[in-house]
Every structure is written in structure tokens, then in C-alpha cells.
Q: What sequence folds into this?
């Protein structure tokens, strides 16, 4: 019955999917409500990536900043439970006495790119950017473009979602006729290059204008009077075929359901690509141009993208603001196709599908957790969240890696793991004095002993990788845990991932000055060796051997039944603490034991936990973690008869071997 039930669900899903595909081919054109459109001309709509905010321009309205003589002001509406709310004038400083308009919206909708240079000393064509703060929109700042000029009376702009390309509709010396579409590229220094003509596949002898590049960074929508159309100006779309920005597919007219004998332009769509907004002269209020929406058939939709939202979670308690930079590495999409938009302690990113992405925070004096997202098979738009946790580079701080992953039931790295290994390598080289305790968790087998051994093998594999990169093996203290601890963090980082979140590696910073401490230790050992060789002759004369210098002492720390809590009132611990204060103890071997009550595998794990508990006690009393080793024996080596209560009590112990 279970299998039949599953098949029934899948069949129903396929039927509904096919049904939705059929209906999705129909274009439904809607004149937006009076909340948006008026008897005055509405133009230049620009939708936010999440589809929640619509910015547009209204011409010669009495509600404009300068009244009916004001050529064009910016208005904004928010999509609520009842649809689009009544649009409001966005006000100063974005609206002034010149024609104003929004040409692009950042993914967070907290940065607007604006028509006009906003140079108060003179009126000149250009583009500016304004950011939303707690006190409102900032004064727009001009964006400079190299070798910029325009011979036309009209101009349009659009910033790509990558933030690295700027599309411009202008008339220049190399134009094919009137307005052509151009691209200006942002270099590493943040400067915008001389505009490059998109080529004759896009541009004609008549005007091409109102460019809009979809979130996939490939699909271009624009208005044209030169390509074959139904009347005045029609909306077309074309696909970018390579990275040159001059190679495009043949432009396609969106058809008579969108275009008419009149004027259609200024097409804009949210990141999900399902609803389009544009300006049409057909059917506008009292003959004006209104803003319309249309449902977009799949044939006109851009490639799907993922809208990724995240928060920066920091252990740094400093009141100073922290500027984050998120690094994205990807398997196939070029770096320019990832756009990241920052807002205080949040970020938004638009990721094209068809690739997998690995990303993390790159900032000095902190180490971040990382994310891996596999979008190679993703076919639909999706909104996802992925918070990034960072910790300061300080002793005692710890973080978890879910992206050091291995072949199932094995210790060979999966390919994506090298993203994580290499980016941590960069951090480790930057702070070469770091020493870590690596705790491994494995949940591949049903048997706990197998998982314990597997976690040990995987930790050794990690250490081997870094030793091959010229690190010292003593910089990595290995603590295998097997499957005794499930993942406790609210982990939403592996979107669409096949990884088991319980399989993970914990990193704890034991020292930030290991290199210096190591040099001092080597110097001390060399000095001791020299002194030892000098005293050997004296001891030989006294019929003494060098082995008499080595003092070995054992303690036994007892535990209650099925417990790992240490009773510090034990005589052995009091004596051990006194010796620790003298400072000459160098190394410890902690061997954990249990009585024979319970499962053998469980008892082995319990013996390890007892040894771990005593290890933590020693660390609190000044012993370095790297000087402590653990051997879990479980119930294998009893020192008393397990058939009696007193005997079992003696067997529940951790034996401590100390070397002077």
C-alpha cells in the first residue's frame, strides 16, 4: 500500500504540472488598478527582485514635487494582501525639478539607480545611485562612465543583476541609427568602461530603447521601432550567447497579446520571471499611457534563478560595525553572473541555476562557516535563506564545517570538499600560528564502533591534506566522536544537498601562537637533551642509568553508574591537582573503562566520554590539549569482579598515566 500511495502522489503531481504548463502559455493582460494608474501618463516601471515593490514615473501630475509643470516624478507602491497599495510620491531628494525615474533596483530594494546625474550646479545627462537609510533615501551620487556622450534627446539605462554591467540606450558615433543599446562594464577598481555597441543583431536604423536584463543575466527585453512590429514601438526579447555582449539570438516579438499598433515599452519582471509589467498606450485612462501586467508564457521566460537571502551571525561582540564580503565560487557560471547586495547585517544574492555554488565570508580576523548549494538540476525559481556564522580568530573559539564531506562509508573526499579545504587553507596560512582540535562526527553505519573508526580515519585524512601543504601534524589534534552526537545547530545551509548534516567536522582554536610555542618547546628539548648527556657520565659513575630520570605515575578516577561527571573530591584528583601546580608534568594518557552492565558498543562510547570529561578537567587546570591522548577500552579490561556492586564501581574509571 505504501508504494501505491507514493506512485499516486507522483502521478497526481505530474498531471498538475502538465496542467499548469498548458495554462501558463496563455497571456493575461491586465491594466493595473487606480492605485497605480491615473489620468496622467505613468511610465518607466521597475519591479523589485522579490516582486513586492513597484517603482515608476508619473508625468505632469499635480502631486509631483513641482506640480503639473514637473515633467516626471518617481512613485512607489507596495504589494499587499489586497494587491497593489496606493502609490505615493517618493519625495525629495530623489524627486526634483528635473525629470526623475528609477532605472534599476538592487536585490534588497534598498539601493535605487536613478535617471539624471543630480548635479545641482548644472543639468546634464547621467545616472546616480541612492541608498535607503533609517532617515530615508540618501542624496543621489553620480555614477561616472568613461567617454560618455549622447547625441539623442532621449536616454535609458539599466544595471544588470550582477552589478557589473550597465546597459545604455543612446545615440553615439558608432550607432546604427538613432538610439542603440550599449553596454558599459565595471572594472576591478569600480570604474565604468566606454560603452560598447551590442551589435546589429539587436540594433537597427531606428530607435532601440528601454533595456531590461532579466535576473539570469542573459535574457534581454527591450523596445524597438526598427524590428518588425505591430505599430509604433514593440517589446522584444533576445538571449545573450556568450560573454562578449555582442553575440545575441535573433530578437523575438512578444506578440499581439502584448504589443499593439500603439506604443509599448519599459518591460520589467521580478526574479521569478512569472509576471511582467510594461507601459502601453492602448486603453490608457483618458488617452494616457498606463502600466499593465501580463502573465508570461514559458517560451518568453528567462532562465530560472534563486533569490538567496542571508544574515551575518557574528560572535564578535564589538560595537563597531563589521563590513562583510561574501565570496562565491561556482562550478560553471562565471563570476559576473552572481550579484550580491549588502544591507547592514544581511545580504541578498541572485544565483543562476545550472551550477553549484560554494560561498563564505572573507574578512580579516574572522573565520566563517561556509555553504554549498547544488542548483545543477534546479528548474524553477526559488527563494532560500542561508545565514553565515563567523567567529573571531581567538583561542577557545569554534566553528563547524558541514562541507568537508566524504564518500559514503569511506574516507575519500567528495570533489566539492576541496572548495572548503582550500579556502580554510588560506585562513590557516594567514594565521600560521593556529592550532586546532578537530572533532569528527560520522553517521554512515548502524554500528557505533564502525562510525567511531570511520570518524578517526576521516580526521586523519584531513590532517594528511594539510600536512601535505607544509603544516605540522601537531597543529591538528584529532578527536573522533563517531555517531554519539547529532547535529544541534539549526542548519539550513545545504539547500538541495545530499549531504547528511550529522556528518560534520568541528574546529576549535586551541592556540593562536602555536608556531612560537613550538619553537620554544624544541629549544627546551634541545637544552634538556644537552644537559641530560652531560649528566649521564656523572650518573654512570654513580652506577645510575638514564632511565631513572623518567618518572611514571598512575591515578585512577572513578565515576558513578552511566555517568561522566567528575567528583573532584576524590583523593586521586586532589593529589593530581597538587602535582599540576608544580608544573613539571608533561604528558598524559587517559584510558577509559566501564563495568559490563549494558551494550558493549555503548560502553566503549561511554568510556571515551569519561576520558573526554577528564581531559576537559585537565585543560581547565592548565594542561595543553595536545599533551593529552585518549584510549577508550569500554568493558574489556576490568580490575575487579563485575558480579559485585563494589567490583563494578572500581571498573567504572579512567586510568591516568603521567610522564615527567
A:
Amino acid at each position: 500500500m505504501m508504494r501505491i500511495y507514493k506512485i499516486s502522489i507522483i502521478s497526481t503531481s505530474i498531471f498538475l504540472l502538465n496542467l499548469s504548463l498548458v495554462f501558463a502559455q496563455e497571456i493575461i493582460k491586465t491594466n493595473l488598478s487606480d492605485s497605480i494608474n491615473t489620468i496622467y501618463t505613468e511610465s518607466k516601471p521597475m519591479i523589485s527582485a522579490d516582486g513586492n515593490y513597484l517603482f515608476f514615473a508619473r508625468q505632469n501630475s499635480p502631486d509631483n514635487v513641482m506640480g503639473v509643470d514637473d515633467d516626471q516624478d518617481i512613485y512607489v507602491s507596495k504589494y499587499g494582501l489586497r494587491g497593489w497599495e496606493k502609490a505615493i510620491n517618493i519625495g525629495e531628494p530623489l524627486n526634483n525639478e528635473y525629470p526623475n525615474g528609477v532605472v534599476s533596483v538592487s536585490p534588497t530594494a534598498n539601493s535605487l539607480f536613478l535617471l539624471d546625474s543630480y548635479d545641482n550646479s548644472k543639468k546634464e545627462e547621467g545616472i546616480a545611485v541612492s541608498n535607503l537609510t533609517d532617515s530615508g533615501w540618501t542624496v543621489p551620487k553620480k555614477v561616472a562612465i568613461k567617454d560618455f556622450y549622447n547625441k539623442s534627446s532621449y536616454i535609458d539605462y539599466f544595471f544588470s543583476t550582477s552589478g557589473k554591467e550597465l546597459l545604455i540606450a543612446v545615440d553615439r558615433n558608432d550607432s546604427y541609427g538613432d538610439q542603440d543599446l550599449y553596454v558599459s562594464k565595471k572594472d576591478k577598481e569600480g570604474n565604468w568602461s566606454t560603452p560598447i555597441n551590442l551589435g546589429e543583431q539587436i540594433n537597427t536604423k531606428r530607435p532601440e530603447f528601454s533595456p531590461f536584463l532579466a535576473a539570469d543575466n542573459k535574457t534581454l527585453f527591450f523596445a524597438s521601432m526598427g524590428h518588425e512590429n505591430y505599430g509604433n514601438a514593440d517589446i522584444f526579447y533576445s538571449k545573450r550567447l556568450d560573454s562578449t555582449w555582442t553575440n545575441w539570438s535573433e530578437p523575438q516579438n512578444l506578440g499581439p497579446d502584448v504589443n499593439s499598433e500603439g506604443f509599448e515599452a519599459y518591460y520589467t519582471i521580478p526574479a521569478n520571471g512569472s509576471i511582467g509589467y510594461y507601459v502601453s498606450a492602448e486603453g490608457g485612462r483618458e488617452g494616457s499611457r498606463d502600466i499593465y501586467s501580463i502573465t508570461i508564457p514559458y517560451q518568453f521566460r528567462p532562465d530560472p534563478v534563486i533569490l538567496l537571502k542571508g544574515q551575518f551571525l557574528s560572535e564578535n561582540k564589538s560595537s563597531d560595525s563589521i563590513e562583510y564580503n561574501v565570496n562565491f565560487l561556482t562550478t560553471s557560471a562565471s563570476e559576473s553572473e552572481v550579484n550580491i547586495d549588502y544591507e547592514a547585517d544581511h545580504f541578498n544574492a541572485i544565483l543562476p541555476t545550472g551550477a553549484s555554488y560554494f560561498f563564505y565570508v572573507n574578512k580579516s580576523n574572522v573565520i566563517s562557516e561556509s555553504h554549498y548549494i547544488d542548483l545543477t538540476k534546479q528548474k524553477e525559481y526559488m527563494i532560500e535563506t542561508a545565514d553565515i556564522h563567523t567567529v573571531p580568530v581567538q583561542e577557545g573559539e569554534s566553528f563547524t564545517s558541514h562541507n568537508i564531506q566524504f564518500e559514503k562509508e569511506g574516507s575519500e573526499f567528495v570533489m566539492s570538499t576541496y572548495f572548503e579545504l582550500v579556502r580554510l587553507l588560506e585562513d590557516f596560512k594567514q594565521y600560521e600560528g593556529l592550532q586546532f582540535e578537530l572533532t569528527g562526527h560520522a553517521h554512515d553505519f548502524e554500528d557505533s564502533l564502525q562510525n567511531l573508526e570511520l570518524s578517526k580515519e576521516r580526521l586523519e585524512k584531513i590532517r594528511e591534506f594539510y600536512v601535505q601543504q607544509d603544516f605540522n601534524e601537531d597543529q591538528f589534534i584529532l578527536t573522533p566522536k563517531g555517531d554519539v552526537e547529532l547535529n544541534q545547530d539549526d542548519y539550513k545551509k545545504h539547500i538541495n544537498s545530499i549531504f547528511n548534516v550529522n556528518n560534520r567536522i568541528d574546529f576549535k582554536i586551541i592556540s593562536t601562537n602555536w608556531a612560537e610555542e613550538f619553537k620554544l618547546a624544541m629549544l627546551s628539548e634541545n637544552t634538556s637533551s644537552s644537559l641530560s648527556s652531560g649528566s649521564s657520565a656523572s650518573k654512570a659513575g654513580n652506577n645510575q642509568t638514564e632511565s631513572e630520570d623518567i618518572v611514571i605515575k598512575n591515578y585512577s578516577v572513578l565515576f558513578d553508574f552511566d555517568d561522566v561527571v567528575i567528583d573532584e573530591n576524590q583523593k586521586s584528583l586532589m593529589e593530581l591537582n597538587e602535582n599540576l601546580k608544580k608544573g613539571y608534568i608533561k604528558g598524559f594518557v587517559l584510558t577509559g573503562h566501564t563495568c559490563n552492565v549494558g551494550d558493549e558498543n555503548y560502553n566503549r562510547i561511554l568510556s571515551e566520554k569519561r576520558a573526554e570529561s577528564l581531559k576537559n578537567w585537565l585543560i581547565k587546570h592548565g594542561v595543553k590539549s595536545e599533551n593529552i591522548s585518549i584510549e577508550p577500552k569500554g568493558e574489556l579490561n576490568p580490575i575487579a569482579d563485575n558480579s559485585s556492586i563494589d567490583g563494578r564501581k572500581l571498573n567504572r574509571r579512567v586510568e591516568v598515566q603521567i610522564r615527567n
Summary: The chain has seven helices and 39 strands. Confidence is low (pLDDT under 50) at residues 1-24, 527-552.
